[in-house]
Amino acid sequence: MALVRLQTEDFRNLSPDPVTFSPSFNLLYGANGSGKTSILEAIGYLGLGRSFRVSRHKAVVRHGQTRFTVFGGLDRGNSDAEGWHSESAGLSHRLGIARDVTLKETVLRVDGENVRSLSRLAKHLPVSVIDPGVFDIVAGGPGKRRQFLDWAVFHVEPSFASIWQQCQRVTSQRNQTLRNGRLDESLLRVWDSQYAQLSEQLSEHRQDTFDQFARAFERLVDEVDVPWTRGLKLEFFPGWDRSQSLPEILMSHREQEFKIGHTLYGPNRADIRLKFQGRPVAETFSRGQQKTLVILMKIAQGMVLSGLGRQVTFLLDDINAELDMGHRAMLAQKLRSLGSQVFITSIEHPAPESLWGMGDVPEYRMFHVEHGKLTEE
Ligand SMILES: Nc1ncnc2c1ncn2[C@@H]1O[C@H](COP(=O)(O)OP(=O)(O)OP(=O)(O)O)[C@@H](O)[C@H]1O
């Protein structure tokens, strides 16, 4: 599925006019502050239910307003529809998200019906963001890598979202018991058994998706032939030492967890360990190598979903500042061969031939962004 239509109301500085996008490549250019990232951010809301650049919904609602809305129309092929309001025929799915920041209420809509769970909305549009912040996947802490892995698990394994939520709930109840000030062994055992069961299920899904990802990554490394990638090792760590059962580990660390007041072993500690010749890449790789590695990981994730017949919408924000021409071209070519939908922002007028080569430019639409308004060229 690709996002072929977008319309927003009171979302940052964006104009409320509907826009029709290509299911393939979309090139957006415009001056600083024109609204390029805001467009990607609005698209991101439909696939992630949140902003990929700020944690509070409040920041994205137009100044002076209290509620924003984002509507999206998804389709497989090219859309020649006239405008959002004219007709919904031809669209495979219609998604909507509205947030009232004063009432703190969110309304989610799929195909004209209200839905309660964000996963019902998000599963229709796998959105993968590549922006300057993405490089934290290698350079940052385990949380970024968990988020990276869980995004794919969510799209690969339909039951993952519900198990993840249950596990978060039990973890929080377990943490409350640990913080009670009195070690309530019988209550902790009840939580431990539920927690261990959910943790096992969650980790199996993570492991399965990780294995698919690791195989895709290996294939990719063979294709791109970047010599230093040969010494790389990617490993999934579930959050505890699996040679022991989780309940045993929890029992033997009771005092430690009680002292700290929260759960120290389990899925909330999971990570993807990235090593080069036995050492963590964050300590050994140059900044440029780290960036290349993140790009390869993102493409490999796209390969996993594409292998399952899912089209990923990639949002490439401001990558000119981060990646040299060779890496940008490699990324553009791989995303094309995956059949992904891609949005690329830049300040300068882009030259598609520089990404794909003369005579081999894919189908694309080009937009100039000014004061939050998109004009197609
Ligand atoms: N809540 C808001 N309401 C109204 N305008 C906003 C809001 N938040 C940001 N803006 C403005 O919207 C504009 C668009 O910002 P955006 O980050 O999308 O620009 P950009 O084209 O990506 O810029 P750059 O090239 O500098 O990254 C900016 O001028 C900003 O000041």
UniProtKB/TrEMBL annotation:
It is found in: Cytoplasm. InterPro entries: DNA-binding_RecF (IPR001238), DNA-binding_RecF_CS (IPR018078), P-loop_NTPase (IPR027417), RecF/RecN/SMC_N (IPR003395), RecF_2 (IPR042174). The keyword Protein biosynthesis does not apply. Keywords: ATP-binding, Cytoplasm, DNA damage, DNA repair, DNA replication, DNA-binding, Nucleotide-binding, SOS response. Belongs to the RecF family. Residues 3-350 form the RecF/RecN/SMC N-terminal domain. It comes from the Bacteria. The gene is recF. Its main location: cytoplasm. The keyword Nucleotide-binding applies. ATP binds at G30, A31, N32, G33, S34, G35, K36, T37. The RecF protein is involved in DNA metabolism; it is required for DNA replication and normal SOS inducibility. RecF binds preferentially to single-stranded, linear DNA. It also seems to bind ATP. This is DNA replication and repair protein RecF. HAMAP family: RecF.
